[in-house]
Amino acid sequence: MYPVLPLAGTRIRRPSAPWVMALLLGAVITGCAGSTRTASITGTSPAPAPDAFACVRDQLKAVDFAQTSYDVDQLRVTARKFDEKQRRPDVQFRRIVDRLEIVVAPGTGNAVTNITVDAKTFAELATHRGPTEEQEKTSTTARAAAQTILQKCSQPVDSLSVPG
């Protein structure tokens, strides 16, 4: 076999370095510029951490989220809510799943307790491998639930309303 050579009088050009660098930089910026898919909300509570944790667990029921797990030692709780009413033109789409991940930690300074709520939304798909979840932009339902829980559990305890 003979090597393929360019025609006489033609030159093989390589892309210039600045052009290649600009293209790579554009790809990196585009990849990093995606929107945040998790809404993270942080607040403080004047109640001690165990009381704030109990408040969080009670408020999950009030916002119609089902608790999926909790850790009393680390004061963490997770919950989810299914939205069966939403429809999409995708035969694999099954439902929307809103998830809350809540961490209650002892505070520092003037804050007695810190509460962090991460709200996430997933589209559940029925694939040939079984149920699959793809994270989406956080829904208004999940954001509102996170705000409500944080607001209700950040209020000071009224000593006059406590019996005894």
Please name the fourth-level CATH homologous superfamily: START domain
* Number of beta strands: 6
Helix content range of the residues, please? Answer: 25-40%
- Radius of gyration equals 26 Å
Indicate the low-confidence ranges by residue numbers: 159-164
Overall number of domains? 1
Q: What's the CATH first level?
A: Alpha Beta
* N-end to C-end Cα span: 99 Å
> Secondary-structure element sequence?
HEHEEEEEH
Structural class: alpha+beta
Overall geometry: elongated
Q: How is the CATH topology named?
A: Alpha-D-Glucose-1,6-Bisphosphate, Chain A, domain 4
What is the average per-residue confidence, as pLDDT, rounded to a whole number?
Answer: 83
The portion of residues forming beta strands comes to 25-35%
Number of helices: 3
Per CATH, the architecture is: 2-Layer Sandwich
If you had to describe this structure to a student in words, what would you say it looks like?
The structure is a single chain. The chain is α+β, with helices and mostly antiparallel strands. It has one domain: Alpha-D-Glucose-1,6-Bisphosphate, Chain A, domain 4. Helix content is 27%, strand content 35%. Helix 2 crosses helix 3. The longest helix is centred in the N-terminal third of the chain and has 16 residues, at 17-32. Residues 159-164 have low confidence and may be disordered.
